[in-house]
Amino acid sequence: MFVLTSSQMREIDRKASQEIGIPEVVLMENAGFCVFEEIRKDFETLDDKNIAVFCGKGNNGGDGFVVARYLAQVCPNVKVFLFDENVTLISKVFLDILKRLEVDVSILSEELLLSLKTQRFDIIVDAIFGIGLSKDIDGLYKKAIEYINGSGAYVYSVDIPSGICSDSASVRGCAVKANKTVTFVYPKIGNILYPGSYYCGKVIVKDIGIPEKIIKDIKVKILTAEDLDISKFYRFPDSHKGDYGKVGIVAGSKYYPGAAVLCSNAAVQSGCGLCYLITPQEALYFQNLRKPEIVVLPLEGKEGVISFDGFVKFDEYLAKFDVLGFGCGLTKNEEVEKILIHILENFQIPIVIDADGLNTLSSSQKAKKLLANYKSQKVLTPHYMEAARILGVDVKDVAKSPIDAATKIASEFRAICVLKGSRTIITDGDEVFINVLGNPGMAKGGSGDVLTGIILSMIAQGYSAFEAAKLSVYLHSLSADILLEKKAMQTILPSDIIEGLDSAIRRLIEG
Ligand SMILES: NC(=O)C1=CN([C@@H]2O[C@H](COP(=O)(O)OP(=O)(O)OC[C@H]3O[C@@H](n4cnc5c(N)ncnc54)[C@H](OP(=O)(O)O)[C@@H]3O)[C@@H](O)[C@H]2O)[C@@H](O)CC1
Ligand SMILES: [K+]
Fold first, then answer.
1. CA–CA separation, 104 vs 335, rounded Å?
2. What residues contact residue 499 under an 8 Å CB cut-off, 6+ apart?
3. Residue by residue, what is the 3-state secondary structure of 218-241?
4. The ligand 1 atom nearest the CA atom of 136
5. Looking at domain 225-510, does it have CATH number 3.40.1190.20?
6. Pocket test for ligand 1, best of 59, 143, 156, 206 (most atoms within 8 A of CB)
7. pLDDT at residue 289 is higher than 90
8. Binding site annotation covers 252?
9. What letters, b where the CB count within 10 A reaches 16 and e where it falls short, cover 287-319?
10. What sequence ranges are listed for the domain YjeF C-terminal (predicted)?
11. Whose alpha carbon is nearest atom 31 of ligand 1?
12. Strand, coil or helix: 93
């Protein structure tokens, strides 16, 4: 499913009306009716309800007038609160209809808002701002939104909760906290990314009669099972371990031995033929949870961290790997930088760089340059802070526009970027997929190491870096969601996510 920006939505509306000839009033009528239908579906009866519809002066308010008209046909207690009588031309069509039908329409003022505190509404429709929100909210708008949020009513937001930026999902001063948001054509970024997604409540996407053929060149999509290629999950009966690829992992240190275990356990659990773990000897003390299928290549370390001299002894192995993982739990020092540069200068294996690999990259201009010119597939898996370090920006800037940040990283390094967060973004610099599966039980140290292991395994099994990243992000989250059916979020561990891959893969294959 596509995800739209406000300008894409406007362009679609423009084409529908100007090129195809569907009048804008028809689109507004359809939009308002869709919201009404959703409300009607949710309640057995509406005639005993007190309902308020808050309408702004833009077209979002116009949708609100349409909702109010339909509600007034089935409920005697519908009140419309208008912020400004100076509404858009299309909205005016519907406001005039309301007036002719003698629906209760009032212009909202501070006094009126205060008097509402003694009334109780069962349902409130928020049609104050939609995709036209252009600045932070203050004054009467702010007070009205605070009133709505404290009202105890069941709240429907039209298109997007008022106060949420449809392009960045950020809160502009304050925002309506809806129970349900009915959006049109396709969801907007503000409906999908956080914090906007939280304010939306349940998101319902409605068709308002815009022909599909005019919706073109949309690059952002919600990641669904239909976007995944599972053809390589089929195993030929006469196959052997060599058919499923060799993963090499450079990970772990005396300080973070578990990262190496989680990454390599995830790789073997998700199907690669062989997995080699290059880790400093000093990290082995802790590895009793490591799966026995993993081949360990203990490396002579320096103060518990991998050393360049120790590492180059494994060059012969590196040449044989189908994919190399670099970074989980390595820590960051000059030796790690030297090793990363050595790999980028001397090999051409598909590479997945995570954690300390990314931190090393962000402070090494040489490694950055080499990576951009590295002639093989690359996957970078930063979380927001790592992405900020790579881009040399504040983490708040990444959080404000994560799609832009991920796209920039992917383009700069000609790599696949997996920007990890509550909505992980996967992009090759052109197409963007947003993962909406997963749950806060995954917000634990070690989750990222597991994801890296799965991506490595998928590349080893023959998937392209982009396909592997999509598939792995999906399976990683699906595993955590399946675990949630039986476990509390607090008790879901990254190692449980590895074990849960079995159910996740089976569920994906079975559909
Ligand atoms: N054909 C279509 O396009 C269809 C569109 N549809 C519906 O239209 C919605 C988009 O409508 P819209 O473009 O009129 O914008 P909308 O969000 O209603 O508000 C803009 C107004 O608010 C004002 N304003 C903004 N921020 C403010 C603030 N902080 N504080 C105070 N004022 C502020 C802003 O002022 P300005 O920025 O111009 O100064 C302007 O006056 C869309 O979400 C969907 O619901 C559907 O009917 C389907 C067909
Ligand atoms: K709204």
1. 73
2. 269
3. CCEEECCHHHCCCHHHCCCCCCCH
4. 29
5. yes
6. 59
7. no
8. no
9. beebeeebebeebebeebbbbeebbeebeeebe
10. 224-508
11. 137
12. helix
Query: Which protein residues touch ligand 1 with a CB less than 6 Å away?
Result: 13, 24, 27-28, 31, 56-63, 88, 129-137, 141, 158-159, 184, 208
Per-residue DSSP letters for 301-324? EETTEE-HHHHHTTHHHHHH-SEE
**Boundaries of every domain in the chain:** 6-218, 225-510
Q: How far apart are CA 31 and CA 159, in angstroms?
A: 9
Q: Is the peptide bond before 280 cis (omega within 30 degrees of 0)?
A: no
% of the chain with per-residue pLDDT over 90: 93
Task: For 6-218, give the CATH class.
Answer: alpha beta
The token duo for 336 is: 């790690």
Whether the Cβ atoms of residue 128 and residue 60 lie closer than 8 Å to each other: yes
Q: Which ligand sits closest to the CA of 140?
A: 1
The mean per-residue pLDDT over the stretch 328-333 comes to: 93
Q: Are 53 and 79 in contact (CB under 8 A)?
A: yes
